[in-house]
Amino acid sequence: MKYRLRKDSQRPYIHVSEGIVDDASTEFQKLTGYSSHEILGRPIRELCKLIRIDAVEFLTKSDKAERSSCFIFTKDFEPREVEIWSKSEGDKTALYYFREKPDSRMYENLRLFKQTFEQGKMMTALLSFPDLIILDANQYYLKHWDEPYNRKEASIGMKYTDLISEDFRNNIFDGIILKEISEGRPFFRYDVEYCHPGKRTTFWDMSYMPVYNGNEMKYIVLQCIDVTEKVLEKAKIERQQEEFYANISHELKTPLNVIFSTNQLIAHYLKNGLLEDNTDKMLNSTNTITQNCYRLTRLISNLTDLSKIRAGYLKLNTSKENIVSLVEDTVESIADYVKYNKLKIVFDTDTEEKIISCDPERIDRIILNLISNSVKFTKAGGNIFVTVADKGDSVEISVKDNGIGIEEENLRNIFDRFYQGDSSLICNKGGSGIGLHLAKTIVELHGGKMSVESRAGEGCEFKIEIPANL
After folding, report:
1. Are 136 and 79 in contact (CB under 8 A)?
2. Is residue 17 domain-shared with residue 33, that is, in the same domain?
3. Does position 427 have pLDDT exceeding 50, yes or no?
4. Which domain holds residue 111?
5. How many structural domains compose the chain?
6. CB 385 within 8 A of CB 398
7. Which of 231, 268, 370, 402 has the most Cβ atoms closer than 10 angstroms to its Cβ?
């Protein structure tokens, strides 16, 4: 076929004969960025695909000699808003004229947006209004789409509503976002839920901003940030907090119930004149009340310190202390409690004296928390070993047991605030989920570090290393 080239024409046009493009003006080539070799000889439907317009709509409107407006796209994916009309030369031939509209080259008017678009770390796309064609999108935006729409050549020129999920379109976009935009209002929404067909649900911070050319709305700037991990983490913390409050309630009620019932027993002895006959029982009862008061005091102290940590003003009251004696005294103070739970506790040290600067009250609470954990998760007949080792520039304190241990997947989170591992075990054994987090924080305030080693079914060992500062 011999093609005709009317290079003298000052108007962008193409000539179609029997459905094949056999002529294209130089101005049309300049408008689209495609050469004559890329245009001539193509079926008109293929050319429509090349410049990203709907072939059926194009041919239908143009054949009626009506001027129709649409966006076409250059070889470099740049949008051009044009008017198209045709002049018939017979049943099977026609000339199609293109006129670029004023201000069609949007980035000449949106230079600041273009800079943000190219350099920003935010998902950004530009849509036409009202037909919602994707005019441009940065790579950060495209990479979140599935194949093949994660590439410009597949997504530019598509209708935005053809790419988003049906659920999001029906429930969010058509019903809320488009209504806001159509009335000239920008749309902002945080933590928008997006359900990918056959994939996990994600969450986004979204903004849709109308852009005007004079009094006419021309574009919509869409910007998104993937906040899925933040939302999931927030939900996780909220869930842990709910469990925390439930467990705190349990932790508070248990000693209070014991104190209440013991008090009732004492009142019964007093009322019936049975004190002298039940002296031993009375002593045990008062001891029970004392132990549970200590338990409540420790819990309240933990909660107070947790609040101070979150507010950022927990401070240590340090003094020079023999850390060996301090740990040994703590072990002795809890020995009866350990024995009552049918466990054996052993204290060992490689030195009798090691003076360091520390907060004795909080060191005591750390050791109590660790031993209490071992008691909770070690079966009757088990052993707990507490050791102090002089490392020269530091002191290492170890609390080791042969209890049920910790699953490997739980080790990385064991020091997180509110983290409680196997909730079924916590429900059975009690616990607030703040003891280990608090212990690690206090150790770090001393300039030290805390670690854990464990295997499920083989017990666990917590190690604390504190600098031997004076």
Report:
1. yes
2. yes
3. no
4. 106-226
5. 3
6. yes
7. 370
CB 397 within 8 A of CB 386: yes
User: What is the CATH classification number for the domain harbouring 83?
Assistant: 3.30.450.20
Block residue for tokens 């014991």: 258
Strand partners, 224: 123, 206
Angle, to 10 degrees, between the axis of helix 435-445 and the axis of helix 360-376?
A: 150
Residue type, 424: S
User: For residue 39, what are its two tokens?
Assistant: 């245009």
Cα 302 from chain centre:
28
Q: Which two tokens stand for residue 353?
A: 């004296």
CA dist 170 and 153 (Å) reads: 27
What six digits make up the tokens of 165?
């999920």
Structure tokens at 59: 């041919």
Which of 226, 256, 278 is the last residue in one of the domains?
226
CA pair distance 391, 408, nearest whole angstrom: 28
Residue burial 81-98, b: 16+ Cβ < 10 Å; e: rest? bbebbbeeeeeeebbbbb
Lookup: tokens for 25: 């003006």
Residue 8, domain member (yes or no):
no
Query: Same structural domain for residues 170 and 56?
Result: no
Q: Alpha helices, DSSP H only, in 64-163?
A: 111-119, 139-142, 152-155, 160-163
- Cβ distance 345 to 371 under 8 Å? yes
Q: Residues 244-270: pLDDT tens digits? A: 777 777 778 878 888 888 888 888 888
Is the Cβ–Cβ distance between 323 and 363 less than 8 Å?
A: yes
381: left (phi over 0), alpha (psi -120 to 50) or beta: left
84 three-state secondary structure: strand
Does residue 153 sit within a domain?
yes
pTM of the complete model: 0.55
Taking the C-alpha atoms of residue 444 and residue 446, their distance in angstroms, rounded to an integer, is 5
- How many angstroms separate the CA atoms of 350 and 338, rounded? 23
**Residues 365-380: tens digit of each pLDDT:** 899 889 988 998 999 9
Q: What angle do CA 336, 340, 342 make, to 5 degrees?
A: 120
Polymer length of the chain: 470
Q: What is the pLDDT of residues 14-51, one digit of tens each?
A: 999 999 999 999 999 999 999 999 999 999 999 999 99
| Strand spans (E) along 366-431 | 383-390, 394-401
Q: Which amino acid is at 436?
A: L
